[in-house]
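Morning!

This is the sequence you dropped in the shared folder:
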Amino acid sequence: MPEVNATDAERVVAAFAPMAADPLLLTPFEIGMAMYRHWLGATSRLLQDQSAHLQNLAECDNPFNMLVYQT
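The structure's back. Tokens below.
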């Protein structure tokens, strides 16, 4: 029985090995990963801006400064 499993595993590896080595097939994955990295960077910057805004509001000592930071 283990010989059958080893043979099946070898067939599966042989079926996927050429696809992993082909750079044209990896290009869409690389493009997707680049887009994902840029999306995460934009999200990170947006969250940093929002946290800085909330920090400024938390440090307000009078209502006038709060209105200034809100606008």
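Headline: The CA atoms of residues 16 and 22 lie 10 Å apart.

More detail when I'm at my desk.
O.
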